[in-house]
Amino acid sequence: MALTLDMGIHIRAPREFVFQHLLTPHHLARWFCNFAQFDPRGPAVGTKFRFGGDYAIAATEPPGWPCDILSGEVLRSVSFRWPLFGADTRVDWRAEDGSEGSVFRVAHSEVPREDSTCGRFHDAWRVCLGNLKAVAEARDDSLRPDSSPIGDGMFRLNLVIGASPSKVFNALVDPTIMSKATGGSRVGIVPRAGGTYEIFGSGAGPASIELVEPGRRLVLSWPIAGAPRRLTVDLEDKGGDRSGVYLRYDRVPDNAALRVRCRWSDLLVGLKNVLETGETGFTEPYEAQSRTG
């Protein structure tokens, strides 16, 4: 059965400005893909374009995925056909006027499978939209989907959050804030060494908190199949109420590595937006953004 992703995100920038980030290669490179190439005449209905790279919803080498622009409305919407994994999928991008800025919506239909080259399509789109929100609001870039191989069962995620290390740490151990960052998942945290840390519905089960260093480090461990799966988050003061956030996940299960990396990318992007703007910006909860049929 085909998959449809449908989600919107509030962006504190005018609709016209947000739309400019959709059809220009240098803007797309900051939130959607490594490279993009449009018809020499410029993007218009009936023309073709290509995009791709490791940092894209679905990775591919140059010359990229061949797409056709199907329809559009000046400074409001564009729709394109994306031949993907043997299926003709359709992507609709729309920028709408909204309260205190605009709402950007994406609908990706007829997707032939749940997983892309970087993890779940659902999480990858959320990462891109969350990053677009940060970029269009003139804040530091966030994360993008990553299809690079995960070697030795370990991956790292690094980003800058516009909040002090103590504020970021307090958010990491606050169930209410972490629930908001995940898109509405129920979160249970007992914030002390030996306590538990669980994001319900993630499939990982409860982790044990190995180490708590307020404002500096949080270490979680999952004993799975006789081996500890360890997640470490280190915080660094960047000055001016900015923090470097460095996540390392060791011994991630091979059969779930890409999904785990993409889901944690989404969570960190959501946390960044919550701490910097008070919202993830998404207009619907996580579970309402994906459907099959």
Summarize the structure.
The chain has helices at 15-19, 25-31, 121-136, 165-172, 175-182, 257-277; strands spanning 3-11, 35-38, 48-53, 60-73, 77-84, 87-98, 101-111, 155-161, 187-189, 196-199, 207-213, 217-224, 227-237, 243-250, 290-292. With 293 residues, it is α+β, with helices and mostly antiparallel strands. A hairpin with a 7-residue loop joins β10 and β11.
Which terms summarize this structure?
Alpha-D-Glucose-1,6-Bisphosphate, Chain A, domain 4, 6 helices, 293 residues, seven-stranded antiparallel β-sheet, 39% strand, 2 domains, single chain, alpha+beta, 15 strands, globular, 22% helix, eight-stranded antiparallel β-sheet
Strand tally, please?
A: 15
Strand order of the largest sheet: 2-3-4-5-6-7-1-15
**How many domains is the backbone divided into?**
2
Text of the CATH class of the largest domain: Alpha Beta
Tell me the CATH architecture of the largest domain.
Answer: 2-Layer Sandwich
Principal-axes geometry comes out as globular
Give the topology string: H per helix, E per strand.
EHHEEEEEEHEHHEEEEEEHE
